[in-house]
TrEMBL record:
The lineage of its organism: Bacteria, Bacillati, Bacillota, Bacilli, Lactobacillales. It is an enzyme of class 3 (hydrolase). This is 6-phospho-beta-glucosidase. InterPro entries: GH (IPR017853), GH_1_N_CS (IPR033132), Glyco_hydro_1 (IPR001360), Glyco_hydro_1_AS (IPR018120). SUPFAM superfamilies: (Trans)glycosidases (SSF51445). The keyword DNA damage does not apply.
Amino acid sequence: MNINNDFFWGGATAAHQYEGAYLEDGKGLNIADVERGSRHGVERKIDNQIIENVYYPSHEAVDFYHRYKEDIALFAEMGFKAFRMSISWARIFPNGDEKIPNESGLEFYDKVFDELAKYNIEPIVTLSHYETPMHLVQQYGSWRNRKLIDFFTYYCETVFRRYKDKVRYWITFNEINETMNKAKPYHQAGIIFKDNENKADVVLKASHNMLVANATVVKLGHRINPDFKIGCMIQYPMTYPASSKPQDNLAKKLFMMPDYYYADVMCKGYYTNTCTAQWERMGGTFEQEDEDTLILKEGTVDFISFSYYFTTTVKLNEEQEPVVVKKNPYLELTDWGWSVDPIGLRLSLNELYDRYQLPLFIVENGLGAIDEIDENGEIQDDYRINFLSSHIKEMIKAIKEDHVEVLGYLSWGCIDIVSVGTGEMRKRYGFIYVDKDDEGNGNLSRKPKKSFYWYKKVIESNGRYLLEGE
């Protein structure tokens, strides 16, 4: 098998990290808009409301809202075949529960899609990328509340009908499996735990509502336009056992169960034995409506998209629970302590394809690093080129040698954007440098890095440039 000419080379972003204009033209607050910036390695703080004289990175981000034409022209210069972006729910429905959409918000995305079409760049659109309207969190408890299924479905129907001739590829929830993150399922589900609340019950209930919403939206989208391709999206944490001990191999299985939990339901259409076993492991319960079984069955996705950044190594602790081993001795680490493992991407593609037999789409992969402008005014980011090159080569092996069906490769943060984990700007992923620092200073000017011209060669050669020698 070879990479065909329809392969989607490109890049990816998210509205709350990229657009800015956080209350412009009728947009409402979303959950990212009340997250403060932070220093390197410090967890971000979440406020209940906007506080004066506090820096919130999403408010301006890097101002795609006013600079979309400039940025899309740069993507076109690189030769992008596809661009992953998200629609900000609160830009269309400021509170999330209105009946009449915000026309100014709809018009903005019309202009973006038209600009992409001018350069024959396919939009890959995420419907919910850590951008739940704040009103839905405060008024309804976010995805704990089954009412959000209807609110989300109505929002999706609105944009499906508006853009049915402009967008073909849709992604429902970004990294939905992170809802089972014990520490803070805030980004994925807008959940802030209350005192004395059974966290397992809340997570399972919110997850079920999101999974029913996912299936409902898939069915709806296919009715509106049978040519729509609607996929799920998970973070795939390729996991190794710490040793060849059977217990450590069991640790891998247990560690991966929460991730397969979501993909099983979205791809297979029902709660598998992996899912029911996870309920018991968590010690949580939730109620299902009578119609949910049929909705999940009929609303399976067309493809699986996923993010891949690093691999994890685990072992069992004394309580027979999987725990992460901090350092895999065979792998180097990034500046932010993430393992660098290109072969892990090939293994991830194989594991997912073997389990689900659905087309796969790499919609996030990249290196967060500190970029410096040299004395010639250039950014020599060879470390990024090396990282991406090694990962893309392993992807090509998965396609050619393992016969895995892959729709495309989208590098995360193809232009420098705000880090979702810390709110920093200095954790840069892009091929394009943006003049802005962690305090919000800078003129937001754009400047191609060395990797910009490298990626252009990769795309125009359909990947052959990497195999023939760089």
